[in-house]
Design a protein that fits this description.
The structure holds 3 protein chains of 3 kinds. Chain A is an alpha/beta fold. Helices cover about 40% and strands about 20% of the residues of chain A. Chain A has a 5-stranded parallel beta sheet with strand order 2-1-3-4-5, with helices on both faces. A 4-stranded parallel beta sheet of chain A has the order 7-6-8-9, with helices on both faces. In chain A, strands 10-14-15 form a 3-stranded antiparallel beta sheet. In chain A, β1, α2 and β2 form a beta-alpha-beta unit. The N and C termini of chain A lie far apart (about 50 Å). Chain C is built from 13 helices and 2 strands. In chain C, β1 and β2 form a beta hairpin. Classes of the chains: A alpha/beta, B mainly alpha, C mainly alpha. At the B-C interface, α4, α9 and α11 of B face α5, α10 and α12 of C.
């Protein structure tokens, strides 16, 4: 973060502790991108999410005849910090909180949005509870979730012969959920879980002792139920300890940004599930080419950043159709409207939003290319399989979402 | 010998070895703390930040000057040690007449500044640092696959600890140092420049932390929190060992690394807390620490 | 060797207690504080003010230990955070009303303080600081893994409930008055403790422990009671914070929180009754304005630490007191 960036955020921010909201254009839709600007999830979300949101506003606001403003803040992956910022934003005239990686922060903000009848569009968090027991009429979960990752990667790995598993799990709610969901699909596919080691999160950077346990278990697959830099550290150290000679590694929450930081040499052959890849078809390539100049280091957009783009477009369309004043007044009505209309954009193609707040679209199982297969920068994936939208996500009946009746 | 107490032998020996590696870091860091405390009566809360700086300097040397691991092992301690000297001259030396707690608060503040600045500049997700080519690869020990680099860390840490012990116990400078710890006024009266000795001692302790940081860089990814996570555990190690003797802090460091490793085999969930439990037991039975003078 | 709470060469005017153990100047300061408490919510964002009050109480509790007994605890986050967790658990799972939940938080702090304090007071000075820090880290690791804390998620959507089962606290305004009341009770309680005979013994322990021992005081018992009181009030502050914000998380048990409360007391003035309140207001305001800048907050806090220790050891209130020659 350089000084100019500091000033820019200072100018864009409004979290001053004054009681009376400052006078603001009543006709402007205010979208707050609350994301990880400095932590382990900065690369797949962070400034790129802000850029993708701004791209959506630039492309659509004028065309739809609405005014929209994009704010940003860093939640430092701490639920209390995130909840504070969101509460203050909502109290001071922000209509939508967008992105929010880190499940714990997302769950906290979903509560606040519901309490204040504001809108929460989540692209960055993994927990499938957001559309399960914790679902809300004010929340839409856009891009991916733990169930979809577990189903995509877990089931596919068992099918290709990886039928005995050992998990290394981050010892907190998200890690447990990811391990549990994946274990279900492994067992459903006829595989077995031989053991699991839980490590203290976030204090662990050396995974050697857990890797030694994994090796001693003689499982065929090492499942990594963690995220971000923990995952990349595990993979590097697994190579160092020679695990890759007789074990396959399944990174359950691996994405484009982690593959990029590992490099193809280390990541080669990994299987992973994503909802978006820039080089999927003509529309995704066109979207990527448009947004790339705005992204830090001219990276390619990740699925989470693409989700911010897609969610913003759909929100702007709904708000424009209802009229800005009505949209600002009642977020629940906006969500109803968004659920009633089909989505369509360059990043995800056609899709829809279910009653429980789950946005659905096809998901893809990718395998990371070997360095020699890669033609040019950012060319990382081979498409292995496609899960159709209706099968990729958890069926509504299994989610226990109170909004779904009968 | 397949099973020992129902635990597969490879697992047990593997964890013991890994515990020894962690112990090497505990030993190096608590040694630096003990040396500084012995001379200056200051608990150096910046120690963790200086350990982290060692790793970052190694990374910077590689990425901006193209100087690899071996140069970093030499240069990073010198650079960070020089920074320590400046810190001691400009700030810490002003506090010697006050309560020791002010030294603790000051170094805590400096630690916050360093950590915050590094996080601003490099983010908190960590930077990769490769194992030098000469030390990459692994030995197949039969019961486990032992990366050569980790073996190297244990050996080098042991050598550094023994060297420090020799300097303090067997050389003339060391004898001045021990004398000044006991009675600075008297040593000063013999014409020895005690303030300068204090400055250099602080610099040396800091350099030791930076040295450990360079050793750690290829194992843990280089990130701003790597020091603060470790330093609190090292504090517990210091309390357990007592700060009376150099040898004590080394033995305690390695010993606790091994205890931690064993806990990971028998009760992994407790591995983060076992050192603190040991600390509580030691305090209840020998309040001055295992090697401490009351 | 002056304890950190020791005042630096100030010749205080001798002032007789005027009311409730306050001197006349202190009474004026107290009046100003109450007036600010009354007026502030009409001008400032109430949630922000409540945060200041929670931390002000926390800092006052911490100051009781360092300012009046001379013990620097570097692990007060443990009592604050655990108090928050148990108060949240009580309100959410057991369905207790807010006042009882906060009481549960206070009890938690007291019990934890009793156990840790009993071990820690065996050593003094720097060792005491390191031991409390190490135990707090152990509590932190426990909270990361214990199921009831929700680990990384924390305890979320803690209900504010109704005061005495009658007055609903959902409105920020009502909640503010409740928070202000608890803060004032805590503040006056600490003031009372300091000026009781018990408090006098504590101060003698700070100034010269061997002499206090030789006068027949069992100084360890006095220190332990002070430690438990401080921990209990920290637990109350933590519980209050959970109820206000509806969330209890790992942030509140992490060692950085222990550092923050030291900073608040240091900035305001160690060993002054109003210092921690001012210090908390300053630090929280700063964090609020700088929240966007992430790690810069840490850097600035570090700089303030260094400045305070090197040049400004009396803190804001201490300097004012020194200038006016009165105890504040």
């Amino acid at each position: 973060m350089n000084r100019r960036h500091l000033l820019a955020t200072a100018a864009a921010s409004t979290t001053l502790p004054f009681a009376a909201p400052r006078a603001q254009g009543a006709a402007t839709l205010r979208i707050g991108v609350l994301t990880d600007m400095s932590g382990p999830y900065r690369d797949p979300t962070g400034p790129g999410s802000v850029a993708a949101t701004q791209q959506a506003v630039a492309e659509f606001a004028q065309r739809l005849g609405v005014q929209a403003e994009v704010l940003q803040a860093d939640h430092q992956n701490r639920p209390d910090v995130g909840a504070n910022i969101a509460r203050q934003w909502y109290d001071q005239g922000v209509d939508v909180v967008l992105d929010v990686p880190t499940s714990s922060v997302a769950l906290a903000i979903s509560q606040i949005a519901r309490e204040k009848n504001k809108l929460f569009l989540n692209s960055g968090a993994a927990t499938s509870d957001l559309t399960g027991p914790a679902c809300s009429p004010n929340t839409i979960h856009w891009t991916y979730d733990t169930y979809m990752l577990a189903k995509g990667t877990g089931a596919a790995t068992v099918r290709t012969g990886g039928d005995t598993w050992f998990f290394i799990t981050a010892d907190y709610a998200f890690g447990h959920a990811l391990q549990r969901d994946t274990a279900t699909f492994v067992e459903r596919g006829g595989g077995r879980v031989l053991g699991a080691a839980r490590y203290p999160f976030p204090a662990t950077t050396d995974f050697s002792s857990f890797l030694v346990q994994a090796q001693a278990s003689r499982a065929k697959v090492l499942g990594l139920a963690n995220a971000g830099t923990d995952t990349t550290n595990c993979i590097k150290q697994a190579k160092e300890f020679g695990l890759t000679r007789n074990m396959r590694i399944a990174g359950l929450l691996m994405s484009f940004a982690e593959v990029h930081s590992l490099g193809l040499e280390t990541a080669e052959g990994l299987l992973l599930t994503e909802a978006f890849y820039w080089n999927l078809n003509d529309r995704t390539r066109a979207f990527a080419a448009r947004v790339q100049p705005r992204l830090p280091n001219r990276a390619m957009p990740t699925q989470i950043q693409a989700g911010c783009y897609s969610a913003t477009i759909h929100y702007l369309k709904a708000a424009a159709a209802m009229g800005v004043a009505a949209a600002k007044a009642d977020a629940r009505a906006v969500v109803e409207r968004m659920k009633a209309t089909e989505t369509d954009d360059d990043a995800f193609g056609p899709g829809r939003i279910r009653q429980d707040g789950r946005k659905i679209h096809p998901t893809f199982l990718f395998q990371v290319k070997a360095p020699r297969e890669s033609r040019g920068a950012w060319d990382y994936y081979n498409l292995v399989a496609t899960n159709p939208a209706e099968e990729a996500f958890r069926p509504m009946a299994e989610g226990n979402c109170p909004l779904v009746r009968g | 010998m397949d099973d020992i107490f129902g635990i597969p032998a490879p697992l047990l020996f593997g964890q013991l070895l890994l515990g020894l590696i962690n112990g090497a870091f505990y030993a190096l860091l608590s040694l630096g703390l003990a040396v500084i405390f012995g001379m200056l009566n200051v608990i150096n809360f910046t120690h963790g930040a200086q350990f982290m700086l060692g790793a970052f300097v190694a990374w910077l040397l590689l990425n901006f000057l193209g100087l690899g691991y071996w140069w970093a092992l030499l240069l990073a301690p010198i650079i960070v040690g020089a920074f320590g000297v400046v810190l001691e001259r400009t700030m810490i030396s002003r506090l010697y007449k006050l309560d020791h707690l002010y030294g603790l608060l000051l170094t805590f503040g400096v630690g916050l500044i360093i950590e915050g600045l590094v996080r601003n500049e490099f983010g908190s997700s960590g930077l990769p640092y490769r194992i030098p080519a000469e030390l990459s690869g692994a030995w197949d020990l039969g019961f486990m696959f032992m990366p050569i680099y980790r073996g190297w860390v244990v050996v080098v840490a042991l050598v550094a600890c023994i060297a420090t012990w020799l300097v303090i116990e067997k050389t003339k400078i060391g004898s001045y140092l021990r004398a000044a710890t006991e009675n600075p006024a008297l040593v000063q009266a013999f014409g020895i420049n005690v303030p300068r000795m204090m400055t250099l001692t602080y610099g040396a302790g800091v350099a030791l932390a930076a040295f450990a940081g360079v050793l750690a860089a290829p194992i843990y990814s280089v990130n701003p929190q790597m020091g603060s996570n470790l330093i609190i555990i090292v504090f517990a190690v210091v309390v357990i060992g007592g700060m009376g003797s150099i040898l004590g802090s080394v033995v305690t460091g390695f010993g606790l690394g091994i205890i931690e490793g064993l806990t990971k085999v028998f009760w992994p969930e407790a591995s983060a807390t076992v050192i603190f439990v040991v600390m509580a037991i030691v305090l209840l039975t020998r309040p001055a620490g295992l090697f401490g003078r009351a | 060797m002056a304890a950190p709470g020791g005042f630096e060469g100030t010749d205080f005017k001798q002032e007789a207690p005027a009311f409730l153990g306050f001197t006349r100047t202190q009474l004026i300061a107290f009046g100003v504080m109450c007036a600010v408490l009354l007026v502030a919510p009409f001008f400032l964002y109430p949630v922000f003010l409540m945060k200041v009050l929670c931390f002000a109480l926390f800092a006052c509790a911490f100051n009781l230990l360092i300012g009046y007994v001379g013990l620097l605890s570097f692990g007060h986050a443990a009592y604050f955070g655990m108090g928050g967790y148990l108060a949240g658990h009580a309100a959410k799972v057991w369905g207790l009303p807010p006042e009882l939940s906060i009481l549960v938080g206070g009890l938690t702090g007291a019990v934890l303080g009793l156990v840790i304090g009993w071990i820690a007071i065996r050593r003094q000075g720097i060792y005491f600081a390191m031991i409390t820090l190490a135990f707090a880290q152990m509590v932190y690791f426990f909270c990361v893994q214990a199921p009831f804390t929700g680990g990384e998620d924390g305890i979320q959507s803690i209900p504010r409930g109704s005061l005495f089962g009658v007055i609903p606290l959902n409105s920020d305004f009502t909640m503010y008055w409740f928070t202000a009341a608890i803060f004032l009770i805590g503040f006056l309680f600490i003031h009372r403790v300091i000026h009781s005979p018990f408090g006098m013994v504590l101060k003698s322990v700070r100034e010269n422990e061997p002499r206090a021992t030789s006068l027949g005081y069992r100084t360890d018992d006095y220190k332990l009671v002070a430690f438990v009181l401080s921990a209990a009030l920290s637990g109350v502050a933590g519980g209050l914070k959970s109820i206000v914000f509806g969330i209890a998380t790992l942030t509140d048990v992490f060692w950085t929180m222990s550092g923050e409360v030291v900073l608040m007391s240091l900035v305001g003035g160690l060993g002054t009754i109003f210092g921690p309140v001012v210090g908390a207001a300053v630090i929280i305001t700063m964090q609020n304005y700088l929240a966007e800048f992430g790690a810069w907050v840490t850097v600035i806090q570090g700089v303030i630490f260094v400045l305070c220790v090197l040049a400004f050891r009396r803190g804001i209130v201490g300097e004012i007191g020194n200038w006016l020659r009165v105890r504040l």
